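It is worth pausing here to work through a concrete case rather than discussing structure prediction in the abstract. The textbook approach is simple: state the sequence, then state the predicted structure, then interpret. We follow exactly that order.
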Amino acid sequence: MIRGVFIAGILFLHGYMAAGQDPIPATPASGSASAISPSIDGAAIVDPASMEHVALMHLIDSIEPYFPKADVKGSAVLAGSTTMQVLAKAWSDRFRRFHPDVEFTRGKDGSEAAIREISENPLVIAGSSRPLTDTELQALRSSQCKEPVSFIVALDPLALYVHPDNPLTSVTPEQLEAIFRAPGTGKPHVATWGDLGLMNDWKDKPIRIHSRSDISGTTGFIRNWLIQGAPMARSAEVHESNAKVCEGVAQDPFGIGMAGFGELNSRVKAVSLSINGAVIPATESSFLAGRYPFVRPLVLVVDKAVMSSDGGLRESILRYVLSRDGQLEAVRAGFFPVDPSFIRKQLDSISGPQLR
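Step two, the predicted structure:
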């Protein structure tokens, strides 16, 4: 089985793993058509991108499909990450094909808002496009949400995007931090394109950051994991979604922004990472080979104390999301599935050890 990067996000770049978090092999998606391209002199040529597609399909096939254990009824509030909204809608719609008596309503938008909402109402299922910190989990335990548990339900590698006319080709992890870290912290901050090594007409031009709002999981991930809690540099423009971030960068020759791989289009350019002298492009191939380390987990947070009295509703939702059916929806939404072995580990924590 192909192994991808460990889910430690940018922490991997610092050689640090969050306490209590196991390394999780990631497996990114890759879109392609056929596995074999036309032959030359009778020899079939294998398209590498197609090989990734085939590998992904084999991996998806190794994830168990969803089988309802029983009829479940009730209602659930899905709150949280705007990055995950399309995926959450797809999951809820498909889940209701198995359980038509379940109703889903939408809670507050944004990872930060969802964490606050579940602290006040433990019936909420909170989606976050970043890991929760130990401090946040401890705060939840002191709130109405007595037994918060987070489950990694998909993976989202992040890329640094610039305008296609921008000659920047790669940045180091240290430069990446310095872009988003505010000046005056005692650590490096880069404010112009010349600070990143660009010359001539670019040298004195300002770096204009296009970002998400403070309630966004993308912003939280950059703040908590990339710059390790330091104050963030001022944004030139704040956007309501990662797609809008890329739209802003596409219209701003001096713009820069962070967004998932799924937002790449012809109007922006993804910048490679330069780590220990090796240039690692922000591509699915690099991610699949385990070379691209900047990846965040998408998580669902539930109150496990509620699961014992909801008639199996939350257990069934989590089992569906972590099934072959649910992980295929993650791929369709532009994200990447979780490694099957880690899925099984999470399922065991939900329903107890399973016979396989």
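Step three, interpretation. Residues 48-61 form the longest helix (14 residues). The chain is about 30% helix and 20% strand.
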